[in-house]
Design goal:
Chain lengths: 379, 437, 281
C-alpha cells in the first residue's frame, strides 16, 4: 500500500480529532433539529401521528397568504439591505423601494396573522423582543461602565471583580426565589418600600400583567380585529411590569459577566494610544468615543450576538419567575413552546413552532453578521 | 330420537351461551403467574408522606400472596411527573403505576398509554366485590371514568381532598360571629368585620387558583363543563356571580391578593386574615404553621364554602393512580397493589400520615382515635360524608384553561368588566378544547 | 495626588461599592431569611440590611439541619461533583482536540463543518429535550450516569472559544515540534495545553456552572435517586417545603455555597483568565 501523503495524513488526524466532539454534537445537538422538522409535518401526539404536511405551519400563520407575505417581506428587506450596501445611488433608491415593499408586506401579514393565526405565538414573540431590547443594551452599557471603572490597578480591584461575577455563578433557582420575594406584591416587599420612599403606589411587580407604558402614561391599543392598527398598536403598550421585573433580574445576573469580558477588551488596548490622545488635548469623552469604543467593537459585537441569541433561547429565569396570573405576559417563545409540548402534548405543532424559532435565531444571527461586520473595527 | 337430538342440541346451545357470556378476563387473569413481577410506581410525595408510603410498600412486598414487588420512586411534583411521563411515553420508558390528575391521564390516554381498569374492578376473582363497592364514595370513583374515551376507567384513587373554608375560630368569637358563614352575604359581612387597616388585618386571602374558582362556581350550583364531556362552559351565571362578588370584596378592601405561594397560609397562621379557602390536604401544614405563628396557637377549623345550593357541593380533588400499559402480569400486579392501598387498614394508616381523605367510608371505624385528636379533620370528614361532590374537567389541555382562568380572575380583581372577560375566557377555553380533542 | 485625582478616586470607590451592594443584596437577603423563624419572615422585615429587623432575632441554624437531614443532600452533593467532574473532563478533551484541528490543521470541509457545529448553539432547549431523551432511551442509558454526562461532553461554545485562542498561538512552535518528530497529539498535550491555562479555566468555569445548575434534563432522564444531583434535590425541597420560607432559603443556600466557595477560591484565576483570553478574531 502506498504510504499516505502528508496532507492526507494530516486530514486523517484532523478528522479523528474532531470526531468525538462532532458525534456528540451531531447526535444531541443537531439530530433534534432534523427530528423536529420531520414531526412538524405530522399531527404528532407524543408517540405517533398522522401525516398532515404543512398544516401545522398553516395553523400558525393563519393562512397561506400570511405565510407568503411574511416570507416575501423578509426576503425583500434582505434584498434591500444588499442593494443599499456600497453601491451607486440608483441601487440605493431601488433598495429603498424594496424596503418599503418588504416592510408593508410584513406589517400586513403580521397583523393578519394576529387575527387568523396563532395570536399567542405572536404575543410571546413580542415578549421575546421586549426582553431582548430590555436586557442586551443595558447589560452592554452597564457592563462597559463597570469595566471602565475597574481599569488600572487599585486596592480591592480583584475583590470587586469577583463580587460582580457572583450573581452569575449563583444557581438561578436559588436567586430567582429571592427575587420573587424582593418583588412581591406585599406592601412591605423590598421593591414596594423603595417605590413608597419615592412617593409611588404599591405595585404588583411580578404579578402585574398590565403593560409598563399603560401604567406610566395610559397607553392603549385598539383597532378593528385584523386591522393593521389592532396588531401594531399592541407594540405601543410595551412590556408588562412583570416582564420588567424579570429584565431587572437578568441585569443583576449578567452585568458583572459582561463587565468582565469588556475588561479584557479594555486591557488589550495599549495605554500609549491614550497617552498620545491626551497629549493632543483630547478629553475623556472624546477618548471614549474615538478610541475606546472603536477598539472595543469586536468585543461589543461578540457580546451583542451572544446576548441576542441568548435572549431568544432564554428559558430558566422566565420559567421560574412566571405566574399564571399574568396570563403569559412573561412567556417568551421558548417557554410558550415548552407549554405547547407538555401541557398540550401537541408535539407536531410544538415542533413547527420550534422550527420557526430556530429560523428566527438563524436569521437574526445572519443579519447581525452582515450589519455588524461593517461597524466592527479590527486592527 | 328427534327430541333427543333437539334436547342434546339445546343443551349444547345453552352450554355455549353460558360459556360465551362468562367474562373472558376472569379466565385470562387467572392464568397469569405473578410470582416475581416487579412494578415501578412514580409518586409525588416527599418527606414524611414519602417515608410512610415506602414503609407501606415494603409491607405489601413482604406480605402479598402473589410474590409481587413494588418499587416506589419520588418523581418530582405533579408538573414534573407530567413532563417526565410525556417524555417517557415518547421514549418507551414508562413506569407501571403513575400518579396523574385526570386531565393528565386524558393526555396519556390519547397516546393509548393507559389501561382501562374497569375489567379489573369487575373481575370475579381480583376485582372489587359488590359489597365493598358500596363502601366507596362513589363520587370519588366516578371521577376516573372518562366519557370522552367511551367510559373507560383510567385511574383508581388512593385518597382525595376537598376545598374547604379555613376559619380562625377564636377571632370569629371575638368578632361575635357564632358560626362560619353559610351564605355569600354572611361571608362578605364577616370579612368586613375582620378588616382593620391600622392593624393590617383583613377578611379573606384571595387564592387565584382555578380549583378555588371551581369551588365557588359549584357552590353556586354551576359547573365548568357541559355534561357528557362535550366541552367547557365558563361563561355562566354562577361564574359571573363568583367573579363579581370577589371583585367587590377586593375593591372594598376586605380581601387581599396572595403575595407569594402559600402566602394565604402564612397570613392565616399569623392571625392576619380571618378566612382562607384551600385544600383540606393542607390541614397538617396549617396546624404546624399556626403553632409556630406570631400569635401563638389559636382555635381554628374548616367548614364547607359559603353557598347558594341547599346542600354543600364540594370540589373533590386529588390525583388518582393510573396503570400504564405493559405486560398482562405487570398490569394485574399494579391493579392488585392499588386495590390493597384502598383497603381500610391501609387507608387508615395513610390518612394518619397524609391527612388526605380515605376513599372508603368504613375507614372511619379504624380512625376513631385519630378523629378524636384531629378535630379539624373530623369536621371536614363529616362534611364530606354529608355533602355532594363534583370534580374539575378532565380534558387534555385543561392545564392551559386553568392558567387562563387565573389570569381572568386577576384581571377582574383589577377592575376589568366581568361579562367581557368571561366571554373572552370562554372563547379561549373552546379553542383549547378543540385543539386537543 | 491632586485634588481632582482624589475626587475621581472617591467617586470610583463609591460607585463600585454601590454596584457591589446591589450585586450582593439578594444573597444577603437569602442568608438573613434562611436563619429566621417562619413567622419572622412576615412580622420582622425591613428593606435595609443595616437595620436590625432585616436580620433574625436569633439565628435558627436548625433550619439548615432540617434541610440537610430531610433528604440525602450529602449524596446529591457528591453526585453533582461526580457529574460535573466527568462532564468537564469530557468537554475539555473533545474540545481541545477538535479546536486544535480546526485552528491548526488543514482538511477538506473544515469551514463547513465548523459552521454546522456552530448551528447547534442556536438550537433552543425545547427542541432538544424529547429527541435527546429518545436517543438516551435507545442507548439504554435512562437512569444511568451516562445520561447526565455524555450529552454534555462536547459543546460548540467551548469549541469556539478554544479555537479562537489556538489560532493565535505562534505557528513556529508547532512547526518546530513537528520537525522534532512530535505527533499532533504530542503537540496538543505538550505545547498547546500548557499554554492554554487561561481559556481552559474559562471553559472549566462556564461548564461547571452550567452543569451544577442543570435541572430540566436530569429531572427527565433520571428516575431514581441513584444519580440525583443537587439541583433536583433543591427542586424537591422547594416543592415539599411549602410555605416555610426559611427552609426554602436554607435549601437554596446549601445549593449555592459549594459553587460559591469553589468560585471564591479560584476567582483570581478565573477572572483573570476570562479577562485575558483574546477575543480578536
Amino acid at each position: 500500500m502506498k504510504p499516505l501523503r502528508a496532507a492526507q495524513r494530516e486530514a486523517l488526524t484532523a478528522y479523528s480529532f474532531v470526531l468525538p466532539a462532532f458525534v456528540i454534537i451531531l447526535v444531541f445537538g443537531l439530530f433534534p433539529v432534523g427530528f423536529s422538522l420531520v414531526i412538524s409535518l405530522f399531527n404528532w401526539r407524543i408517540k405517533s401521528g398522522t401525516f398532515i404536511g404543512l398544516d401545522n405551519y398553516l395553523e400558525l400563520f393563519g393562512s397561506l397568504e400570511n405565510a407568503f407575505g411574511i416570507l416575501a417581506g423578509v426576503g425583500l428587506l434582505a434584498g434591500a439591505a444588499w442593494a443599499g450596501k456600497g453601491k451607486p445611488l440608483a441601487w440605493k433608491i431601488a433598495g429603498l423601494a424594496l424596503a418599503l415593499a418588504g416592510g408593508s408586506a410584513l406589517a400586513e401579514s403580521l397583523a393578519s396573522m394576529a387575527a387568523a393565526g396563532d395570536a399567542d405565538f405572536l404575543r410571546s414573540l413580542q415578549v421575546t423582543v421586549w426582553f431582548s431590547l430590555g436586557t442586551v443594551p443595558i447589560q452592554l452599557a452597564l457592563g462597559l461602565g463597570l469595566a471602565l471603572l475597574l481599569r488600572g490597578k487599585f486596592r480591592g480591584r480583584q475583590a470587586f471583580r469577583a463580587v460582580f461575577v457572583v450573581p452569575f455563578v449563583v444557581p438561578a433557582v436559588a436567586s430567582a426565589a429571592v427575587f420573587e420575594r424582593l418583588f412581591s406584591l406585599r406592601p412591605e416587599s423590598f421593591a414596594n418600600q423603595v417605590v413608597h420612599a419615592w412617593g409611588g403606589p404599591t405595585l404588583a411587580w411580578l404579578r402585574e400583567p398590565k403593560s409598563l407604558f399603560s401604567l406610566l402614561w395610559n397607553a392603549t391599543s385598539g383597532g378593528a380585529p385584523g386591522s393593521l392598527e389592532a396588531y401594531w398598536s399592541t407594540w405601543a403598550l410595551g412590556p408588562s411590569l412583570a416582564l420588567v421585573c424579570v429584565v431587572i433580574y437578568n441585569w443583576w445576573v449578567y452585568v458583572g459577566y459582561y463587565a468582565l469580558i469588556f475588561a479584557n477588551g479594555l486591557g488589550s488596548i495599549p495605554p500609549q494610544v491614550y497617552e498620545a490622545a491626551r497629549l493632543d488635548g483630547a478629553g475623556p469623552l472624546t477618548m471614549l468615543r474615538r478610541i475606546t469604543l472603536p477598539l472595543l467593537s469586536p468585543v461589543t459585537y461578540f457580546l451583542t450576538l451572544l446576548g441576542v441569541i441568548g435572549t431568544f433561547k432564554a428559558f430558566n429565569s422566565l420559567y421560574v419567575l412566571r405566574d399564571p396570573v399574568t396570563g403569559g405576559a412573561t412567556d417568551p417563545l421558548s417557554v410558550f413552546i415548552f407549554f405547547v409540548f407538555f401541557h398540550q402534548s401537541r408535539f407536531g405543532y410544538a415542533a413547527a413552532l420550534s422550527m420557526v424559532l430556530l429560523a428566527l435565531v438563524l436569521g437574526l444571527t445572519w443579519a447581525q453578521r452582515k450589519f455588524g461586520e461593517r461597524h466592527v473595527f479590527y486592527d | 330420537m328427534k327430541t333427543d337430538i333437539r334436547r342434546g342440541l339445546g343443551a349444547v346451545f345453552a352450554l355455549v351461551l353460558t360459556l360465551g357470556s362468562l367474562p373472558l378476563e376472569a379466565q385470562a387473569f387467572d392464568k397469569l403467574n405473578l410470582k416475581g413481577t416487579v412494578v415501578k410506581y412514580w409518586y409525588q410525595h416527599s418527606q414524611a408522606r414519602e417515608t410512610a408510603l415506602q414503609a407501606m410498600i415494603a409491607r405489601f412486598n413482604t406480605t402479598n400472596e402473589w410474590g409481587i414487588t413494588v418499587k416506589g420512586e419520588f418523581a418530582g411534583g405533579y408538573n414534573d411527573i407530567a413532563n417526565k411521563m410525556i417524555a417517557a411515553i415518547a421514549g418507551g420508558a414508562t413506569p407501571d403505576l403513575v400518579v396523574a390528575y385526570q386531565n393528565n391521564a386524558a393526555t396519556y390516554a390519547q397516546s393509548d398509554a393507559l389501561v382501562d381498569l374497569e375489567p379489573y374492578v369487575n373481575d370475579a376473582k381480583f376485582g372489587v366485590s359488590a359489597q365493598d363497592r358500596q363502601d366507596y364514595f362513589e363520587g370519588f370513583l366516578s371521577q376516573d371514568v372518562f366519557p370522552q374515551f367511551g367510559g373507560v376507567r383510567l385511574g383508581w384513587p388512593p385518597n382525595r381532598a376537598v376545598e374547604v373554608l379555613y376559619y380562625n375560630a377564636d377571632w370569629m368569637k371575638a368578632l361575635n360571629i357564632d358560626a362560619p358563614p353559610k351564605t355569600w352575604q354572611e361571608f362578605y359581612d364577616d370579612c368586613k368585620l375582620a378588616t382593620n387597616a391600622a392593624k393590617g388585618t383583613y377578611g379573606y386571602a384571595i387564592s387565584p387558583d382555578a380549583s378555588n374558582v371551581f369551588a365557588q362556581v359549584i357552590a353556586r350550583g354551576g359547573d365548568f363543563q357541559a355534561p357528557q364531556g362535550r366541552g367547557y362552559t365558563l361563561n355562566t351565571k354562577a361564574m359571573a356571580d363568583s367573579f363579581t362578588f370577589m371583585q367587590k370584596l377586593y375593591k372594598d378592601g376586605y380581601a387581599h391578593k396572595i403575595a407569594e405561594q402559600y402566602g394565604d397560609q402564612t397570613d392565616f397562621a399569623n392571625g392576619k386574615v380571618l378566612f382562607n379557602m384551600s385544600s383540606s390536604s393542607g390541614m397538617p401544614f396549617y396546624g404546624a404553621a399556626i403553632k409556630k405563628g406570631a400569635k401563638g396557637a389559636f382555635q381554628w377549623s374548616v367548614a364547607p364554602l359559603p353557598r347558594t345550593t341547599p346542600q354543600p357541593v364540594q370540589n373533590i380533588y386529588g390525583a388518582s393512580v393510573s396503570v400504564v400499559k405493559s405486560t398482562p402480569e405487570k398490569q394485574l400486579a399494579s391493579w392488585l397493589f392499588l386495590k390493597w392501598m384502598s383497603e381500610p387498614a391501609q387507608q387508615a394508616e395513610w390518612v394518619k400520615v397524609s391527612n388526605y381523605f380515605p376513599v372508603r367510608r368504613s375507614t372511619a371505624a379504624a380512625l376513631t382515635d385519630y378523629l378524636a385528636s384531629n378535630p379539624q379533620f373530623a369536621d371536614a370528614f363529616a362534611q364530606l360524608k354529608a355533602g355532594k361532590q363534583k370534580a374539575e374537567p378532565s380534558f387534555t389541555g385543561y392545564e392551559l384553561v386553568r392558567d387562563a382562568i387565573s389570569a381572568a380572575y386577576n384581571q377582574v380583581l383589577d377592575g376589568a368588566p366581568v361579562p367581557a372577560t368571561l366571554a373572552t375566557l370562554d372563547d379561549k377555553a373552546k379553542k383549547i378544547f378543540n385543539q386537543n380533542r | 495626588m491632586t485634588k481632582a485625582d482624589r475626587t475621581k478616586r472617591i467617586t470610583r470607590y463609591a460607585v463600585l461599592a454601590l454596584g457591589a451592594f446591589v450585586a450582593l443584596l439578594p444573597l444577603v437577603y437569602l442568608a438573613a431569611n434562611s436563619l429566621k423563624t417562619a413567622p419572622e419572615t412576615v412580622t420582622r422585615i425591613s428593606p435595609n440590611p443595616f437595620a436590625p429587623e432585616f436580620w433574625p432575632e436569633s439565628p435558627q441554624w436548625s433550619n439548615f439541619v432540617s434541610v440537610w437531614e430531610g433528604d440525602q443532600f450529602g449524596a446529591y452533593f457528591l453526585h453533582s461533583l461526580i457529574i460535573g467532574g466527568l462532564t468537564l473532563a469530557g468537554v475539555l478533551t473533545t474540545s481541545v482536540l477538535a479546536a486544535y484541528a480546526f485552528a491548526k490543521l488543514r482538511f477538506p470541509g473544515k469551514e463547513g463543518l465548523f459552521s454546522l457545529l456552530l448551528v447547534s448553539l442556536m438550537v433552543p432547549e425545547t427542541v432538544t429535550l424529547i429527541p435527546d431523551f429518545l436517543v438516551v432511551k435507545a442507548l439504554g442509558w435512562v437512569d444511568q450516569l451516562a445520561a447526565v454526562t455524555v450529552p454534555f461532553m462536547a459543546g460548540a461554545f467551548s469549541l469556539f472559544l478554544l479555537r479562537q485562542f489556538f489560532r493565535q498561538l505562534p505557528q513556529d512552535l508547532m512547526d518546530m515540534a513537528q520537525i522534532d518528530g512530535c505527533s499532533h497529539l504530542g503537540i496538543v498535550v505538550r505545547i498547546v495545553v500548557p499554554l492554554s491555562a487561561a481559556p481552559l479555566s474559562t471553559v472549566a468555569f462556564l461548564d461547571l456552572t452550567s452543569s451544577w445548575n442543570a435541572l430540566q434534563w436530569p429531572l427527565v432522564v433520571l428516575q431514581s435517586p441513584d444519580w440525583r444531583p443537587l439541583s433536583v434535590g433543591l427542586a424537591r425541597l422547594v416543592s415539599g417545603s411549602g410555605a416555610d420560607l426559611p427552609l426554602r432559603m436554607a435549601g437554596a443556600a446549601i445549593a449555592i455555597v459549594p459553587i460559591l466557595v469553589v468560585f471564591l477560591i479560584a476567582q483570581k484565576q478565573i477572572t483573570e483568565s476570562i479577562a485575558s483570553y483574546g477575543l480578536k478574531t
